[in-house]
Amino acid sequence: MPHVRMVLAATCWAVLMAATSVSATEGTKDAGLGHDYRSFHADGRVEYGKIEDSYTADLVMYLAGNQFMVMEELMRDFLSRNPDIRTVYVETIPPGQILKQQILEQGEIDGKKTARNPDLFASVNLGHLKRLRKEGIMHDYMIYIHNKLELMVAKGNPKHIKGPEDLARDDLVLSLPNPLTEGIFKFYGSQMLKDLGIYEKVTGGKKCKSCWAIPGRVWFTSRHHRETPARIEAGQADVGIVWTTEVAYAKAQGRAVEGVPIPAPYNMADKVGYAIGILKPARNHYNAVRFLSYLGTPTAQDIYAKYGFVKATDSELKLKPIPVD
Q1: Within the chain, which residue ranges are assigned CATH 3.40.190.10?
Q2: How confident is the model over 197-247, as pLDDT tens digits?
Q3: Model confidence over 65-94: pLDDT tens digits?
Q4: Taking the CB of the first residue and of the last residue of the chain, which one, N or C, has fewer CB atoms within 10 A?
């Protein structure tokens, strides 16, 4: 797959907070949140929660959260190919939270201010990038991977869940990504339920987070759909909507869950594309261009595919202007 051309460079959480502050280690065991803020070093070290690195690292990336499982292998390979880059700081949290609470306004993590000018920002919603273009902060983007929706259930599927229509069953307890800050539900899961004609039955029309949309039956997560595996394992939920990559990762870890595929077009595979671009006020523009170029290599695409993502096409891996509505 082609590299992004260097000449294009020139064109180129609410638990999150009442005051945009959240613990970088809270819920690490159950939901992997300790992996949300990582500094990858050329010598192989990985440090967690060094928020100050968002101001000093040689490359700073704020990426859609469900890529967290890919980052260690991806960064190890990228750094080995670019030995002059000593430290890469990577945030993997819901992109809507990043956009609104860390780029468009000053954010804090564990009482530490986060840089508002990451070198790269990625989201599963092109609308986020359109907002940045409107603000004059980003101009070009590319699609670099794809994903799709899947149901996560307990190992052995004891409730015999067959597909997304079963989410309307009264005998099931659901764990769903919250519709306020999690793009997986705000833009895709909710649309799937509407297409199936069960949106009101499943959500009661409620929009909140860390709350019961329907008491005792439908729970909206507080911050990230990575909370769903823990709820299922604890017997607090029977099923949840997640990315297919979350199922693959959980199974690889030996967790007591499995997946129930969602058929097209309800799995949104034709709509879910990860868009990434360089911010105009980025400190490390050249290094950002190099990372975009790296994403187009067969090695990077194969690493993503290993974790269940769908590779981008050659044409998608080329920078293009962010469309204007």
Answers
A1: 6-146+273-321, 149-261
A2: 999 999 999 999 999 999 999 999 987 667 899 999 999 999 999 999 999
A3: 889 889 999 999 999 999 999 999 999 988
A4: C
Which whole number is the average pLDDT over 46-54?
A: 96
Q: With CA atoms as reference, report the closest residue to 107 among 32, 51, 177, 35.
A: 51
Q: Which of 53-57, 206-210, 281-285, 287-291 has the lowest mean pLDDT?
A: 206-210
When the candidates are 3.30.1360.170, 1.10.860.10, 3.40.190.10, 3.30.450.40, the CATH number that belongs to 149-261 is: 3.40.190.10
Question: Of 51, 117, 135, which Cα lies nearest the Cα of 284?
Answer: 117
Structure tokens at 73: 């292998």
Instruction: Name the residue among 69, 64, 65 with its Cα closest to residue 248.
Output: 69
What are the backbone angles phi and psi of residue 162, rounded to the nearest 5°?
-100, -30
- For the chain, the three-class secondary structure string (H helix, E strand, C coil) is CCCCCHHHHHCCCCCCCCCCCCCCCCCHHHHCHHHCEEEEECCCCEEECCCCHHHHCCEEEEEEHHHCCCHHHHHHHHHHHCCCCCEEEEEEECHHHHHHHHHCCCEEECCEEECCCCCEEEECCHHHHHHHHHCCCECEEEEEEECCEEEEEECCCCCCCCCHHHHHCCCCCEEECCCCCCHHHHHHHHHHHHHHCCHHHHHCCCCCCCEEEECCCEEECCCCCCHHHHHHHCCCCCEEEEEHHHHHHHHHCCCCEEEEECCCCCCCCCCCEEEEEEECCCCCHHHHHHHHHHHCCHHHHHHHHHCCCEECCCCCCCCEECCCC
Mean pLDDT on 104-131: 95
